[in-house]
Request: fold
Amino acid sequence: MRDFAYARAGTAESAVRTLADPGTSVIAGGTELLNWFRLGIAAADNVVDIAGVDELRGIATDGDDLRIGALATLNEIGEHPLVTQAAGALASACLQAASAQIRNRATIGGNVLQRTRCPYFRAEEPLPWPCNKRDPGSGCTSLAGRHERQAIFGWTQDCVAVQPSDPAVALAMLDAQADVLGPAGPRTIPMREFHLTQREAADAGQPMRETRLEPGELITGYRLPASADGQAYVKVRERASYEYAIVSAAAAVRLDPVLPGACGAGRIAAARVALGSVAQRPWRLTLAEAELPGTPLTREALIPVIERAMADAAPLPQNGFKVMMARNAAVRALLTAGGAS
Ligand SMILES: Cc1cc2nc3c(=O)[nH]c(=O)nc-3n(C[C@H](O)[C@H](O)[C@H](O)COP(=O)(O)OP(=O)(O)OC[C@H]3O[C@@H](n4cnc5c(N)ncnc54)[C@H](O)[C@@H]3O)c2cc1C
Reply:
Protein backbone atom coordinates (compact mmCIF):
# COMPACT_ATOMS: atom_id res chain seq x y z
CA MET A 1 0.00 0.00 0.00
CA ARG A 2 1.42 3.38 -0.99
CA ASP A 3 0.85 6.49 1.15
CA PHE A 4 -1.69 9.05 0.00
CA ALA A 5 -3.08 12.33 1.33
CA TYR A 6 -6.72 12.21 2.47
CA ALA A 7 -9.30 15.02 2.49
CA ARG A 8 -13.07 15.20 3.02
CA ALA A 9 -15.21 17.12 0.53
CA GLY A 10 -18.09 19.24 1.88
CA THR A 11 -19.89 19.73 -1.44
CA ALA A 12 -19.97 18.08 -4.86
CA GLU A 13 -18.46 21.23 -6.39
CA SER A 14 -15.51 21.23 -3.99
CA ALA A 15 -14.92 17.52 -4.76
CA VAL A 16 -14.83 18.33 -8.49
CA ARG A 17 -12.39 21.20 -7.87
CA THR A 18 -10.09 18.80 -5.97
CA LEU A 19 -10.40 16.19 -8.74
CA ALA A 20 -8.89 18.68 -11.22
CA ASP A 21 -5.51 17.53 -9.85
CA PRO A 22 -4.74 14.44 -12.01
CA GLY A 23 -3.20 12.53 -9.04
CA THR A 24 -6.52 12.59 -7.15
CA SER A 25 -9.11 9.83 -6.76
CA VAL A 26 -12.56 10.12 -5.24
CA ILE A 27 -13.53 7.56 -2.60
CA ALA A 28 -17.13 6.72 -1.63
CA GLY A 29 -17.60 3.34 0.13
CA GLY A 30 -14.02 2.30 -0.66
CA THR A 31 -14.93 -1.35 -1.34
CA GLU A 32 -13.28 -1.26 -4.79
CA LEU A 33 -10.75 1.57 -4.62
CA LEU A 34 -8.82 0.30 -1.60
CA ASN A 35 -8.51 -3.15 -3.22
CA TRP A 36 -7.08 -1.51 -6.34
CA PHE A 37 -4.50 0.32 -4.21
CA ARG A 38 -3.57 -2.95 -2.46
CA LEU A 39 -3.25 -4.91 -5.73
CA GLY A 40 -1.42 -2.15 -7.59
CA ILE A 41 -4.27 -1.66 -10.09
CA ALA A 42 -4.46 2.04 -9.18
CA ALA A 43 -2.44 4.54 -7.17
CA ALA A 44 -3.28 8.08 -6.08
CA ASP A 45 -1.37 10.86 -4.32
CA ASN A 46 -4.60 12.38 -2.99
CA VAL A 47 -7.90 10.79 -2.07
CA VAL A 48 -11.00 12.95 -1.67
CA ASP A 49 -13.76 11.38 0.41
CA ILE A 50 -17.31 12.26 -0.72
CA ALA A 51 -19.08 10.18 1.96
CA GLY A 52 -20.09 13.34 3.88
CA VAL A 53 -21.59 15.19 0.91
CA ASP A 54 -25.31 15.25 1.78
CA GLU A 55 -26.44 16.45 -1.67
CA LEU A 56 -25.24 13.08 -3.10
CA ARG A 57 -27.60 11.12 -0.80
CA GLY A 58 -31.24 10.27 -0.97
CA ILE A 59 -33.86 8.44 -2.99
CA ALA A 60 -36.90 10.52 -4.00
CA THR A 61 -39.37 11.20 -6.78
CA ASP A 62 -38.73 14.27 -8.92
CA GLY A 63 -41.75 14.88 -11.15
CA ASP A 64 -42.19 11.68 -13.18
CA ASP A 65 -38.63 10.54 -12.43
CA LEU A 66 -37.10 8.54 -9.63
CA ARG A 67 -33.86 10.21 -8.43
CA ILE A 68 -31.22 8.10 -6.68
CA GLY A 69 -28.19 9.85 -5.16
CA ALA A 70 -24.75 8.49 -6.00
CA LEU A 71 -24.07 7.73 -2.32
CA ALA A 72 -27.15 5.53 -1.90
CA THR A 73 -25.93 2.10 -0.85
CA LEU A 74 -27.01 -1.07 -2.61
CA ASN A 75 -29.01 -2.14 0.46
CA GLU A 76 -30.74 1.27 0.73
CA ILE A 77 -31.77 1.06 -2.93
CA GLY A 78 -32.81 -2.57 -2.77
CA GLU A 79 -35.09 -1.98 0.22
CA HIS A 80 -36.52 1.45 -0.64
CA PRO A 81 -40.29 1.36 -1.39
CA LEU A 82 -40.00 3.92 -4.22
CA VAL A 83 -37.45 1.68 -5.95
CA THR A 84 -39.27 -1.59 -5.35
CA GLN A 85 -42.46 0.01 -6.79
CA ALA A 86 -41.05 1.84 -9.83
CA ALA A 87 -37.79 0.02 -10.55
CA GLY A 88 -38.13 -3.52 -9.22
CA ALA A 89 -35.40 -4.87 -11.50
CA LEU A 90 -32.92 -2.39 -10.00
CA ALA A 91 -33.95 -3.23 -6.43
CA SER A 92 -33.53 -6.92 -7.16
CA ALA A 93 -30.15 -6.41 -8.89
CA CYS A 94 -28.86 -4.44 -5.89
CA LEU A 95 -30.00 -7.08 -3.38
CA GLN A 96 -28.43 -9.90 -5.42
CA ALA A 97 -25.03 -8.14 -5.51
CA ALA A 98 -22.12 -9.00 -3.19
CA SER A 99 -22.88 -9.78 0.48
CA ALA A 100 -25.09 -8.03 3.04
CA GLN A 101 -22.04 -6.39 4.67
CA ILE A 102 -20.65 -5.10 1.38
CA ARG A 103 -24.07 -3.85 0.26
CA ASN A 104 -24.24 -1.70 3.42
CA ARG A 105 -21.07 0.09 2.34
CA ALA A 106 -21.06 -0.15 -1.49
CA THR A 107 -22.54 2.90 -3.22
CA ILE A 108 -24.36 2.97 -6.55
CA GLY A 109 -21.95 5.69 -7.76
CA GLY A 110 -18.93 3.44 -7.22
CA ASN A 111 -20.72 0.28 -8.35
CA VAL A 112 -20.95 1.18 -12.04
CA LEU A 113 -17.26 2.14 -11.96
CA GLN A 114 -16.08 -1.20 -10.61
CA ARG A 115 -13.52 -2.92 -12.84
CA THR A 116 -13.59 -6.40 -14.31
CA ARG A 117 -13.12 -9.52 -12.16
CA CYS A 118 -10.81 -11.05 -14.82
CA PRO A 119 -8.29 -13.00 -12.68
CA TYR A 120 -5.40 -11.92 -14.89
CA PHE A 121 -6.32 -8.26 -14.32
CA ARG A 122 -6.91 -8.70 -10.57
CA ALA A 123 -3.49 -10.21 -9.80
CA GLU A 124 -1.30 -8.54 -7.19
CA GLU A 125 1.68 -6.55 -8.42
CA PRO A 126 4.28 -7.24 -9.72
CA LEU A 127 1.95 -8.58 -12.42
CA PRO A 128 3.11 -12.11 -13.36
CA TRP A 129 1.61 -12.02 -16.88
CA PRO A 130 0.65 -9.59 -19.64
CA CYS A 131 -2.59 -7.63 -19.27
CA ASN A 132 -3.38 -4.72 -21.57
CA LYS A 133 -5.55 -3.05 -18.93
CA ARG A 134 -2.71 -3.07 -16.40
CA ASP A 135 0.18 -2.58 -18.84
CA PRO A 136 -1.08 -1.28 -22.21
CA GLY A 137 0.54 -3.03 -25.17
CA SER A 138 1.65 -6.06 -23.14
CA GLY A 139 -1.08 -8.42 -24.45
CA CYS A 140 -4.13 -10.30 -23.14
CA THR A 141 -3.29 -13.49 -21.25
CA SER A 142 -6.94 -14.46 -20.91
CA LEU A 143 -7.38 -14.76 -24.69
CA ALA A 144 -4.93 -17.68 -24.88
CA GLY A 145 -5.52 -18.77 -21.28
CA ARG A 146 -8.75 -19.16 -19.27
CA HIS A 147 -11.69 -17.20 -20.56
CA GLU A 148 -14.84 -19.15 -19.70
CA ARG A 149 -16.27 -16.14 -17.78
CA GLN A 150 -15.35 -13.57 -20.44
CA ALA A 151 -17.23 -11.69 -23.16
CA ILE A 152 -19.38 -13.05 -25.96
CA PHE A 153 -20.06 -9.60 -27.47
CA GLY A 154 -17.88 -6.62 -28.30
CA TRP A 155 -14.46 -8.01 -27.33
CA THR A 156 -11.21 -7.50 -29.24
CA GLN A 157 -7.86 -9.29 -29.36
CA ASP A 158 -6.68 -6.67 -26.83
CA CYS A 159 -9.14 -7.58 -24.07
CA VAL A 160 -12.01 -10.02 -23.51
CA ALA A 161 -13.14 -8.88 -20.04
CA VAL A 162 -16.73 -8.23 -18.95
CA GLN A 163 -18.17 -5.49 -16.74
CA PRO A 164 -19.55 -7.37 -13.69
CA SER A 165 -21.97 -4.81 -12.20
CA ASP A 166 -25.49 -6.11 -11.52
CA PRO A 167 -27.18 -2.70 -10.98
CA ALA A 168 -25.70 -1.34 -14.24
CA VAL A 169 -27.69 -3.95 -16.19
CA ALA A 170 -30.96 -2.84 -14.61
CA LEU A 171 -30.08 0.86 -15.02
CA ALA A 172 -29.37 0.32 -18.73
CA MET A 173 -32.58 -1.69 -19.21
CA LEU A 174 -34.65 1.00 -17.45
CA ASP A 175 -33.22 3.83 -19.62
CA ALA A 176 -31.73 5.55 -16.58
CA GLN A 177 -29.52 8.62 -16.97
CA ALA A 178 -26.43 9.28 -14.87
CA ASP A 179 -26.23 12.88 -13.61
CA VAL A 180 -22.62 13.97 -13.77
CA LEU A 181 -20.81 17.09 -12.54
CA GLY A 182 -17.45 18.06 -14.00
CA PRO A 183 -15.18 21.06 -14.50
CA ALA A 184 -17.40 22.12 -17.45
CA GLY A 185 -20.59 21.87 -15.34
CA PRO A 186 -23.38 19.26 -15.14
CA ARG A 187 -24.34 16.84 -17.92
CA THR A 188 -26.14 13.52 -18.24
CA ILE A 189 -25.00 10.18 -19.69
CA PRO A 190 -27.61 7.57 -20.71
CA MET A 191 -26.77 4.41 -18.77
CA ARG A 192 -27.19 2.21 -21.85
CA GLU A 193 -24.19 4.14 -23.30
CA PHE A 194 -22.23 4.71 -20.08
CA HIS A 195 -19.91 1.70 -20.52
CA LEU A 196 -17.93 0.95 -23.67
CA THR A 197 -17.17 -2.41 -25.23
CA GLN A 198 -13.56 -2.98 -26.20
CA ARG A 199 -14.67 -2.65 -29.86
CA GLU A 200 -16.36 0.72 -29.24
CA ALA A 201 -13.32 1.97 -27.31
CA ALA A 202 -10.93 0.82 -30.06
CA ASP A 203 -13.08 2.49 -32.73
CA ALA A 204 -12.87 5.71 -30.68
CA GLY A 205 -9.06 5.42 -30.65
CA GLN A 206 -8.86 4.67 -26.88
CA PRO A 207 -8.78 0.85 -26.75
CA MET A 208 -8.57 0.57 -22.94
CA ARG A 209 -11.26 3.14 -22.12
CA GLU A 210 -14.17 1.56 -20.20
CA THR A 211 -16.74 4.34 -19.67
CA ARG A 212 -17.85 7.67 -21.11
CA LEU A 213 -17.15 9.40 -17.76
CA GLU A 214 -14.38 11.96 -18.32
CA PRO A 215 -11.45 12.36 -15.92
CA GLY A 216 -12.40 14.80 -13.14
CA GLU A 217 -16.14 14.10 -13.42
CA LEU A 218 -18.28 13.05 -10.46
CA ILE A 219 -21.49 11.00 -10.69
CA THR A 220 -24.01 12.88 -8.57
CA GLY A 221 -26.91 10.46 -9.07
CA TYR A 222 -29.26 8.68 -11.45
CA ARG A 223 -32.63 9.59 -12.92
CA LEU A 224 -35.06 6.84 -13.93
CA PRO A 225 -38.37 7.37 -15.73
CA ALA A 226 -41.11 5.91 -13.50
CA SER A 227 -42.40 2.63 -14.93
CA ALA A 228 -45.50 0.62 -14.11
CA ASP A 229 -44.24 -2.34 -16.19
CA GLY A 230 -43.59 -5.67 -14.47
CA GLN A 231 -39.85 -6.12 -13.90
CA ALA A 232 -37.33 -8.80 -13.03
CA TYR A 233 -33.60 -9.34 -12.63
CA VAL A 234 -32.28 -12.88 -13.10
CA LYS A 235 -28.73 -13.61 -11.94
CA VAL A 236 -27.08 -16.93 -12.80
CA ARG A 237 -24.14 -17.65 -10.49
CA GLU A 238 -22.25 -20.49 -8.90
CA ARG A 239 -23.71 -19.94 -5.41
CA ALA A 240 -26.72 -18.04 -4.14
CA SER A 241 -24.88 -15.24 -2.31
CA TYR A 242 -21.62 -13.30 -2.40
CA GLU A 243 -20.93 -14.26 -6.01
CA TYR A 244 -20.68 -12.43 -9.31
CA ALA A 245 -22.95 -13.32 -12.23
CA ILE A 246 -21.88 -15.78 -14.90
CA VAL A 247 -24.64 -14.12 -16.89
CA SER A 248 -27.65 -12.04 -15.88
CA ALA A 249 -30.72 -10.49 -17.47
CA ALA A 250 -32.99 -7.57 -16.58
CA ALA A 251 -36.42 -7.20 -18.16
CA ALA A 252 -39.52 -5.01 -18.06
CA VAL A 253 -42.78 -6.19 -19.62
CA ARG A 254 -46.17 -4.60 -20.25
CA LEU A 255 -48.91 -6.99 -21.37
CA ASP A 256 -51.80 -6.26 -23.68
CA PRO A 257 -55.07 -6.00 -21.73
CA VAL A 258 -56.78 -9.39 -21.63
CA LEU A 259 -60.10 -9.34 -23.54
CA PRO A 260 -63.15 -10.76 -21.69
CA GLY A 261 -63.52 -14.46 -22.47
CA ALA A 262 -59.98 -14.76 -23.90
CA CYS A 263 -57.94 -17.75 -22.84
CA GLY A 264 -54.29 -18.77 -23.21
CA ALA A 265 -51.10 -16.78 -22.58
CA GLY A 266 -51.16 -12.98 -22.54
CA ARG A 267 -49.44 -11.08 -25.33
CA ILE A 268 -46.64 -8.59 -24.83
CA ALA A 269 -47.49 -4.93 -25.53
CA ALA A 270 -43.94 -3.62 -24.88
CA ALA A 271 -40.78 -5.08 -23.41
CA ARG A 272 -37.21 -4.11 -22.61
CA VAL A 273 -34.44 -6.60 -21.93
CA ALA A 274 -30.69 -6.35 -21.22
CA LEU A 275 -28.01 -8.97 -20.56
CA GLY A 276 -25.19 -8.66 -18.02
CA SER A 277 -21.69 -10.16 -17.79
CA VAL A 278 -21.67 -10.89 -21.53
CA ALA A 279 -19.70 -7.80 -22.61
CA GLN A 280 -17.85 -4.85 -21.18
CA ARG A 281 -21.20 -3.10 -21.03
CA PRO A 282 -24.80 -4.10 -20.32
CA TRP A 283 -26.14 -5.57 -23.57
CA ARG A 284 -29.62 -4.36 -24.57
CA LEU A 285 -31.36 -6.81 -26.91
CA THR A 286 -32.84 -4.07 -29.08
CA LEU A 287 -33.77 -6.42 -31.94
CA ALA A 288 -35.84 -8.49 -29.52
CA GLU A 289 -37.46 -5.37 -28.05
CA ALA A 290 -38.64 -4.41 -31.55
CA GLU A 291 -40.03 -7.89 -32.21
CA LEU A 292 -41.62 -8.66 -28.83
CA PRO A 293 -44.85 -6.59 -29.08
CA GLY A 294 -47.61 -9.04 -30.01
CA THR A 295 -45.57 -12.09 -28.95
CA PRO A 296 -47.30 -14.52 -26.51
CA LEU A 297 -45.64 -14.57 -23.10
CA THR A 298 -44.54 -18.19 -23.34
CA ARG A 299 -41.11 -19.80 -23.27
CA GLU A 300 -41.69 -21.37 -26.71
CA ALA A 301 -42.56 -18.03 -28.31
CA LEU A 302 -39.79 -16.05 -26.58
CA ILE A 303 -36.86 -18.38 -27.33
CA PRO A 304 -36.67 -17.76 -31.11
CA VAL A 305 -37.04 -13.99 -30.61
CA ILE A 306 -34.14 -13.89 -28.16
CA GLU A 307 -32.04 -16.21 -30.32
CA ARG A 308 -32.46 -13.93 -33.34
CA ALA A 309 -31.45 -10.93 -31.20
CA MET A 310 -28.32 -12.77 -30.03
CA ALA A 311 -27.32 -14.10 -33.46
CA ASP A 312 -24.22 -11.85 -33.50
CA ALA A 313 -22.79 -13.40 -30.31
CA ALA A 314 -19.11 -14.29 -30.81
CA PRO A 315 -18.16 -16.69 -28.01
CA LEU A 316 -14.56 -17.61 -27.26
CA PRO A 317 -13.46 -21.29 -27.35
CA GLN A 318 -14.28 -21.84 -23.62
CA ASN A 319 -17.45 -19.78 -23.18
CA GLY A 320 -19.90 -20.98 -25.82
CA PHE A 321 -22.16 -22.14 -22.95
CA LYS A 322 -22.78 -18.47 -22.06
CA VAL A 323 -24.81 -17.97 -25.24
CA MET A 324 -27.50 -20.47 -24.22
CA MET A 325 -27.25 -19.49 -20.55
CA ALA A 326 -27.80 -15.81 -21.44
CA ARG A 327 -30.67 -16.73 -23.77
CA ASN A 328 -32.34 -18.70 -20.98
CA ALA A 329 -31.76 -15.90 -18.45
CA ALA A 330 -33.39 -13.38 -20.84
CA VAL A 331 -36.38 -15.66 -21.37
CA ARG A 332 -36.76 -16.26 -17.64
CA ALA A 333 -36.49 -12.52 -16.89
CA LEU A 334 -39.22 -11.74 -19.47
CA LEU A 335 -41.51 -14.49 -18.16
CA THR A 336 -41.02 -13.36 -14.56
CA ALA A 337 -41.48 -9.67 -15.42
CA GLY A 338 -44.71 -10.53 -17.25
CA GLY A 339 -45.96 -12.59 -14.30
CA ALA A 340 -45.83 -15.93 -16.11
CA SER A 341 -43.45 -17.70 -13.72
C1 LIG B 1 -16.19 -9.12 -2.35
C2 LIG B 1 -17.00 -8.26 -3.27
C3 LIG B 1 -18.08 -8.83 -3.95
C4 LIG B 1 -18.84 -8.03 -4.82
N1 LIG B 1 -19.88 -8.59 -5.51
C5 LIG B 1 -20.60 -7.83 -6.38
C6 LIG B 1 -21.69 -8.38 -7.11
O1 LIG B 1 -22.04 -9.55 -6.98
N2 LIG B 1 -22.36 -7.55 -7.98
C7 LIG B 1 -22.02 -6.24 -8.14
O2 LIG B 1 -22.66 -5.54 -8.91
N3 LIG B 1 -20.99 -5.71 -7.45
C8 LIG B 1 -20.29 -6.45 -6.59
N4 LIG B 1 -19.25 -5.91 -5.90
C9 LIG B 1 -18.85 -4.55 -6.21
C10 LIG B 1 -19.37 -3.53 -5.21
O3 LIG B 1 -20.75 -3.37 -5.38
C11 LIG B 1 -18.61 -2.26 -5.53
O4 LIG B 1 -17.29 -2.47 -5.05
C12 LIG B 1 -19.19 -1.05 -4.87
O5 LIG B 1 -20.51 -0.78 -5.29
C13 LIG B 1 -18.33 0.16 -5.21
O6 LIG B 1 -18.85 1.27 -4.52
P1 LIG B 1 -17.94 2.05 -3.48
O7 LIG B 1 -18.76 3.17 -2.98
O8 LIG B 1 -17.33 1.15 -2.48
O9 LIG B 1 -16.81 2.57 -4.51
P2 LIG B 1 -15.33 3.01 -4.19
O10 LIG B 1 -14.49 1.82 -3.92
O11 LIG B 1 -15.30 4.12 -3.21
O12 LIG B 1 -14.95 3.60 -5.64
C14 LIG B 1 -14.88 2.77 -6.77
C15 LIG B 1 -14.53 3.63 -7.97
O13 LIG B 1 -15.57 4.54 -8.26
C16 LIG B 1 -15.13 5.88 -8.15
N5 LIG B 1 -16.26 6.59 -7.56
C17 LIG B 1 -16.98 6.26 -6.46
N6 LIG B 1 -18.04 7.08 -6.35
C18 LIG B 1 -17.97 7.95 -7.40
C19 LIG B 1 -18.80 9.01 -7.86
N7 LIG B 1 -19.91 9.39 -7.19
N8 LIG B 1 -18.45 9.68 -8.97
C20 LIG B 1 -17.34 9.32 -9.67
N9 LIG B 1 -16.52 8.32 -9.29
C21 LIG B 1 -16.86 7.63 -8.17
C22 LIG B 1 -13.88 5.82 -7.29
O14 LIG B 1 -13.00 6.91 -7.58
C23 LIG B 1 -13.30 4.51 -7.76
O15 LIG B 1 -12.67 4.73 -9.01
C24 LIG B 1 -18.50 -6.67 -5.00
C25 LIG B 1 -17.44 -6.11 -4.28
C26 LIG B 1 -16.69 -6.88 -3.43
C27 LIG B 1 -15.55 -6.24 -2.71
